[in-house]
Specification:
By secondary structure, the chain is of the alpha/beta class. 15% of the residues lie in helices and 32% in strands. A hairpin with a 4-residue loop joins strand 24 and strand 25. The chain is globular, with a radius of gyration of 17 Å. Bound molecules: coenzyme A. Coenzyme A binds next to strand 24.
């Protein structure tokens, strides 16, 4: 285990995976897990204690003497809110990169980025703040992932694809080259996307077709 202290915010399944990735890196020491759910307070996840957030994130971080956080929430909007709250509390949002992920040295990365086990990010790709690239996702060359989007496990972005802010790419979905998935949209699991995905739409199927609107939006965008 490393000696750089970090807190994980989120005691769910995604939180467990992020604690594991931080431990596997050999770089970090997870000082505690924070969660709003009082019922989780005091339990342990992978041997790390969960602490209450009753007094707010700044107070919890002060008590645990730690200035860094990894936000471990799958929902883009909730993750974004917590990312903003962490920054407001003066905490640094760290990048979590599992040691088995391959990230080209020619990738630009913002803050609070998560890249999980087995994911590949190839050269020329840009990843903005608060993005999650989940387990074994393949993000090939020259893609652009805007802030707070989420690429679910085993999804494939071929090349030159742009995923706009707050969009989701579902498990195992494939996006053909040079397409844009516009903001707030949701590509369903297993979809084969052969055309641009418009603002706030839900698409799925092979080939993917528009199936509905993604009504959920971030509470506050800036
Ligand atoms: C696309 C998605 C968001 C749609 O959710 P939804 O709007 O709640 O849709 P419903 O579950 O009500 O399903 C509506 C219909 O579409 C079908 N459907 C839903 N998602 C589908 C998909 N990805 N591919 C094919 N058909 C799908 C359902 O079987 C259902 O068909 P029916 O009306 O014939 O019964 C969701 O199904 C999905 O694919 N989520 C991805 C989840 C994921 O990857 N999570 C990873 C977490 S790490």
């Amino acid at each position: 285990m490393g000696n750089k202290k970090v807190l994980v915010w989120g005691a769910g399944g995604h939180g467990k995976v992020i604690v594991d990735a931080l431990m596997a890196s050999g770089e970090w020491k997870v000082a505690g897990i924070l969660d709003e759910d009082e019922k989780k307070s005091g339990i342990e996840i992978l041997g790390v204690k969960v602490f209450s957030l009753e007094a707010g994130v700044a107070e919890a971080a002060k008590k645990l003497d730690c200035g860094r956080v990894a936000v471990a929430i799958g929902d883009n909007y909730a993750r974004f809110e917590k990312f903003q709250q962490s920054q407001g509390a003066g905490l640094t949002a760290v990048n979590v990169v599992h040691p088995s992920a391959h990230v080209s040295r020619f990738v630009k990365m913002g803050e609070g980025v998560v890249i999980l086990a087995g994911a590949t990010i190839n050269p020329g790709t840009t990843i903005e703040d608060n993005v999650c690239v989940n387990t074994s996702a393949s993000v090939d060359h020259d893609n652009y992932l805007e802030r707070s989007c989420h690429i679910f496990p085993n999804a494939t972005l071929t090349g030159g694809v742009r995923i706009q802010e707050f969009a989701y790419v579902g498990t195992g979905a494939v996006i053909a080259p040079n397409l844009t998935v516009e903001k707030y949209s949701y590509v369903g699991a297993g979809a084969l996307v052969l055309a641009n995905v418009g603002l706030g739409t839900i698409v799925f199927g092979v080939p993917a077709k528009v199936r509905g609107d993604q009504k959920k939006r971030p509470g506050k965008e800036n």
